[in-house]
Amino acid sequence: MSSHNHHTEQSRRRFLARATAAAGTAAVGFPMIAKAQGPISLRWQSTWPAKDIFHEYALDFAKKVNDMTGGDLKIEVLPAGAVVPAFGLLDAVTKGTLDGGHGVLVYHYGKQNALALWGSGPGFGMDAQQLMAWHKYGGGKELLAKLYASIGANVVSFPYGPMFTQPLGWFKKPMTKPEDLKGLKYRTVGLSVDVFTGMGVAVNALPGGEIVPAMDRGLLDAAEFNNMTSDRILGFPDVSKVCMLQSFHQNAEQFEIMFNKAKFDALPAKLKAIIENAVEAASQDLYWKAIDRYSKDYIELQTKDKVRFYKTPDSILQAQLAAYDKVTDKKSAENPLFKEILDSQRRFAERVVRWDLDNNVNRRMAYAHYFAAKPAAAKKG
Prior knowledge:
CATH architecture of the largest domain: 3-Layer(aba) Sandwich
CATH topology of the largest domain: D-Maltodextrin-Binding Protein, domain 2
Number of domains: 2
Helix content: 40-55%
Order of helices and strands: HEHEHEHHEEEHEHEHHEEHHEHHH
Oligomer: single chain
CATH superfamily of the largest domain: Bacterial extracellular solute-binding protein, family 7
Largest sheet: 5 strands, mixed
Number of strands: 11
């Protein structure tokens, strides 16, 4: 073979080798490209029965994300019990059995009691919106990440959806003084378990869907869940006609949107940004929806379900504060992270609640001016 032919042959072989290599790369590359363009599916579970408005909130969030990603990400939400029981959500998301979920931080109280500080108790006078402000701007977010890392929870957590003050609950007769609560078999969750136990109550922590059946069977004398709409949907008026309004046991609670950390970290930056902003959009939407729905059901409970509402006496509210202080002193002594979170909340609350109380007008005067019963006009003869 002449040197010219030999050179041509070598060039041809090099060309073929390169072409084959390129084809090989393309063959490997195509499925990856196709996969990246296909929708990413996330399997979620809520900690709520399908009929509860809370499950509706979980679906609302998923819809916002699904719509904004244009189908690039699809969150499918199942109700409580579909994969794991309500209280099993954190473990399931940590292990990756579920990609994420919707619940409340106090449901993981058994893993680390400081998680209940995002929901149980008087919040040093803060309401739930102010506690959310502490979470975002007062150091709460960093403390929550530290808290989850301390228990090996492989999750990315977004507290959101500030809740309104929760009723003291549903009783057989009105509560007039702290002594009336003593010995009652009562349902609550989180730090409230310790607070009510300290007040002499026999507490049982049950998830939302199990409360009314337990009251029906006489396993509970009284219970709290959350709000007018959920309580009505879950059937509380079927087992009690007395509801006590106002309480410090869950004055500033948040919902929680949670993702498996590995799953979340693997998402493209654009999808992460959509999720993070959807959390805040859904948070405010939830708050507005709650105002509309809870106020309607407050009327329906009175007119259709014949429920009688009573304001919780100040003596009970004061007893709650005293019991809460005892509980938090004890937990702070046992758990340095609990103390760190509590101190951080306290510093933020001292400034924020003072501003709130000084700055914002009490609206009772305006309400009385417009809606208080006016004497009937004298009939013209």
